[in-house]
Amino acid sequence: MRTRLLAAVLSVVGLLAVTSCAGSPAVPAKVTLGFTAWPGWLPWQVAAEKGFFAVNGVDVELKYFDSYTDSITALATGAIDANSQTLNDTLMSVSGGARQTTVLVNDISTGNDQIIARDGITSVGDLKGKTVAVEKGTVDHYLLLLALNRAKLHEGDVQVVSTMTDSAAAAFAAGHVDAVGAWAPHTTTALTRPGSSPLTSSAEFPSSIPDTLVVREQLAKLRPDLVQRIVNTWFETLGWIAHNPDEATAIMARRAGVSPQTYRAYQPGTTFLTKQENQKAFSSMKLHQEAAQVATFMQQTKLTTRLAPVDGLFDASFVNAP
User: Rounded to the nearest 10 degrees, how much is the dihedral formed by the CA atoms of 233, 87, 83, 94?
Assistant: First the structure.
């Protein structure tokens, strides 16, 4: 899906931070919201197709990205107003100077991010000296580093092949690398390789990968009414999905490019947070503490060159609104 080097992303973000002093992108009446084929963000497709944004009085242009990295860069450079991205990827952007605000936790990854290996590799420790395809600087690169750290290995102990996630999954399925880091639905492609199986997944690192809605800081400050309506739309969409599971699954599976049967298999690996669970996560400082831990780990493992600031990164007002 995405094939940008971390240094390139950070250089773009850094340039934005410098130029933003002279002026920021205008606050729009229409909000452009980015998302990619992650099960925790596909309810946005349901919201668009069922007209829930309009019902809540907000004009949203839903922009689907084949490349997740492109969506992160688009938000960091002001090309879009809001994006669906993980906590660690948001920290990557703010470490480079982007001004962003997290307003909602869509879900926690509970198994849909996986490190998958070929037959004969049965543990993370067995990856030493092996080739691992992963999109560097993004969430499953982060998962790989978490897994290596727990196995008392370092990134230098494996041969990382950096490529877009869909390409990584295809390369692994074709037998070109020993292992791959990928998320659903790309895990389905990877697991077509005979004898392959997951070595570890996000299920083994509880709460480490929250998937969130992030907006430009200026949008949150100057048009909080628009952000609030989008957050309201999210929770209403989840309610509709709960009462119309078959129709909702068909919509999300079509956007993901898989069958409804395949899509249903992803459901245990994505745990959606209710409004009440969001309120608890924001008010208990749990998100802030998790972000501080992730930021430290990312600096230690050289995913970022400096510690990402977490103060002001979260705004609880939108999930706390009646």
Answer: 130
Domain membership of residue 41 (yes or no) is yes
Helix (H) or strand (E) holding 10: helix 6-19
Peptide bond into 185 cis (omega under 30): yes
| Total H helices, total E strands in the chain | 15, 11
Nearest to 34 by CA among 92, 107, 95, 85: 85
CA distances from residue 224 to 24, 210, 283 in whole angstroms, order as listed: 17, 23, 19
Q: Of the ranges 13-17, 95-99, 197-201, 311-315, which one carries the lowest mean pLDDT score? A: 13-17
Tokens at residue 59, please? Answer: 């004009």
Residue 3 scores a pLDDT above 70: no
pTM, 2 dp: 0.88
Residue span of the structural domain in which 162 resides = 113-204
Do residues 316 and 103 make contact, with C-beta atoms less than 8 angstroms apart? no
Q: Are residues 18 and 76 in the same domain?
A: yes
The residues that bridge with 86 in the sheet, in sequence order, are 211
Q: Are 233 and 59 in contact (CB under 8 A)?
A: no
Closest CA to 318 of 56, 80, 71: 56
Rounded to whole angstroms, the Cα distance separating 155 from 303 reads 11
